Amino acid sequence: MRTTIVGLLLLVAGGVALSSQTRTQVAGYADDQMYAFENWAASAPMPCADAIEADGIRPSSVPVATETGWSHPHQADPLLTLFTVPNGYDFETSGGATIAAGGLDLYSVEDGVPGWADSLMVTSLNRGAIYRVGLSDDGRRAPDAPVEMFKSTNRYRDLAIHPDGRAVYIVTDTRGPTRDSSGAGTRELANPGALLEFTYVVPE
Known about the structure:
three-stranded antiparallel sheet, single chain, 2 domains
């Protein structure tokens, strides 16, 4: 049950900040899918230092809590996750589920790229892409699936949007794992330590 999930959360005025416990008790949605909190620090009677995972099997001394077994009065589902997976997902064959998000920006230019206004732009380190998440008119929902854009064999660390909305600048990492155009894992980066520019050209 080794997975890291990134979720987009809605922040509201007067909201209550939850502790880091929320990030360990629930990964994405509280749906008991492919995640449970293994509290190795509470291993007993065998202490954590002596509790060794053998062949992917957790020692019985380590307590486990399901997502639906934990609650908090201010806990809420994220707008969406990037990405959660169902039970039975094969990490060895398919690789990690998360996009390993790097940077986040809001695209709010009304007369920039058609259809992009009021979108969140999220960079991915291990997929070499940006994910555009369209928001509802009130900004409180993400009704559609994320759109993958600007794919390359790189690790996208952060981004900036030109004021006119027609160019996106992306900073890449100098090294690290990502995926190539076929989806295979690689450490051979196309543009390590670079600043990339993607420009929208208005159709004639």
